[in-house]
Amino acid sequence: MAMRSLMVLGCTSDAGKSLLVTALCRWFSRNGVRVAPFKAQNMSNNARVVAGGEIGVAQWLQAGAAGVEPDVRMNPVLLKPEADTQSQVVVRGVVDRALSAMPWNDRHDALWTPMAESYDELAAQYDLVVIEGAGSPAEINLRDQVNNRMIEYADASGLLASDIDRGGSFAHLYGTWALVPEATRARLDAFVLNRFRGDATLLEPGPSMLTERTSMACAGVMPMLDHDLPREEGATERPRAPIGAPRVVIPRFPFGSNLDEFDLLGHAARVRWITDPGAFDGLDPDRDLVILPGSKHVGADLDWMRERKLDVAVRSAARHGVRVLGVCGGAMMLGHEIIDPVGVEGGTPRRIDGLGLLDTTTTMQPTKRTELVDLEVFGQTFRGYEIRYGELDGGVRHLVDGNVSATTVHGLFEHPAFIEAMLGVVVTPVLEATYERLADAVDAHLDTDLLQALVAR
C-alpha cells in the first residue's frame, strides 16, 4: 500500500529531527507499515558501513528502528568534514574525489541525481518513506535542494519541528513558514513542539493561534525524552554507569570520527571526553582505560594532542601500567610513524611521528576501505566495521603489546560481551528498548490520527 511520504523538517539545526524520524519509523513499523528512512544529504564524521559503502549513523539507527536493512540509498550524500572549509563527499556510499575537490556551488546538479534516484528507488520498494530534512528550509541565502527541492520532488507531507526548549518556538515556526518557498509552504501540513518541559496545557492559545495564521495543524507536543540513542556527533556523556565504575578517558579530537560507538560504554564506565592532560591524573592501572578513538584526519588530531601535551599524558599513563587502546585512527597514532605518500589527508604528502607505544607503521592508501568484518578476540567473535585509509604493517586488525593494544575495527564497544571482557562490568543492549520507548512517546504525545491522515494517498 503506497503512502504519501512524510518529511520532518526543522526550524533550526538540532531541532530534534533525527530523533523524531527514528520514533516515527518505529511507530509506523509496529503499525504494520513497511517504512524506510531517507536523508538526501547528511554532514557527519560518524558513519556506519552498510552494503555498498557508508552512510550517516542517524540513518543507520533509523533503519534499525524501522526494522529494515540499512543501505546507501537511505543517505545518498554524506559530507565528512576534514577541515573548517573542506569536506569529503561520499556519494551512494563511496568517496567521490572529483566532487570533494569541486567548489560547493558547482556540486548541486551532480549531487541531485543520486539524491532523486535513491529516493525513487526507496519509494518504489517501501510503503512509506520518512524523510529527514537538514538544518532549516528557511536558509534563504542558500540554494537548498535537501529540504525545499526534495519536499517538492517527493510531494511529501511536511511536519515542521521546533525545539521549544530553546525558547521562541512560535516565532521560529511562523518565521520558517513565512520564509520558505511557496511550494514548500503548501506542503507544511503540521508542526511539532519538540523537547518541552512542563505542563503542555500552558501553551494554549499559542498552538491554536499558529494554526489560524498558517493552516499548519498542531501534531502534538513532544516532551524532553530521556533516551539511549547516541548523539549524532557522538562524544556523549551520560551518568549511566554504576557507582564505583571504572574510569575511561577519551581525547575529544577536533576531527574525531565514529564516536557514537562508545555510547553503550557509558553504562559500564565513567566515560570522560577530555581536552586537558589533567584528566589522566589518578587513573587506576587495575581498572581504568584510555581510548584513542577514530579520527577523520589523523595527522591534524596528533598535532592537536601535542599542542595540549596529551601525547605526554598518554605515554605517561602507559608507562604507569594503565591500559591504552587505539581504535582505527587511534590505533595508527600508537605506532612509530604514519606515512601519507599521496596526501590522502590534506592533499600534501607527509610523514608524521606517532606516539611510539607500538612497534608499527601505518601507510595511507589511495582508496578507502569500508567493510563489515568479524574480529576474534577474548576467545569470542565480534562483528564490527572498518572505515579507513590507513593500513598497519601486515594488514593487522588487532594487536596487543602488554597494556597497549590497537584495533582497526569499529563497533566492538557496542557488544556487551566485549565491554565485560575489557572492564569486568556487565551491561545490556539498549537500542531495541529505546526504539520502543520512542514509539510509545509518539502514541502518548502526538496526534496519531493526524499522522495517518498526512500519509494517506
TrEMBL record:
The active site is at residues 328, 410. Gene3D superfamilies: 3.40.50.880, P-loop containing nucleotide triphosphate hydrolases. GO terms for molecular function: ABC-type vitamin B12 transporter activity; ligase activity. This is Cobyric acid synthase. The keyword Ligase applies. Belongs to the CobB/CobQ family. CobQ subfamily. Residues 7-224 form the CobQ/CobB/MinD/ParA nucleotide binding domain. Catalyzes amidations at positions B, D, E, and G on adenosylcobyrinic A,C-diamide. NH(2) groups are provided by glutamine, and one molecule of ATP is hydrogenolyzed for each amidation. Pathway: Cofactor biosynthesis; adenosylcobalamin biosynthesis. The keyword Ligase applies. GO terms for biological process: cobalamin biosynthetic process. It comes from the Bacteria. Residues 247-395 form the CobB/CobQ-like glutamine amidotransferase domain. Keywords: Cobalamin biosynthesis, Glutamine amidotransferase, Ligase. Coiled coil: none annotated. It comes from Ilumatobacter coccineus (strain NBRC 103263 / KCTC 29153 / YM16-304). Transmembrane segments: none annotated. The gene is cobQ.
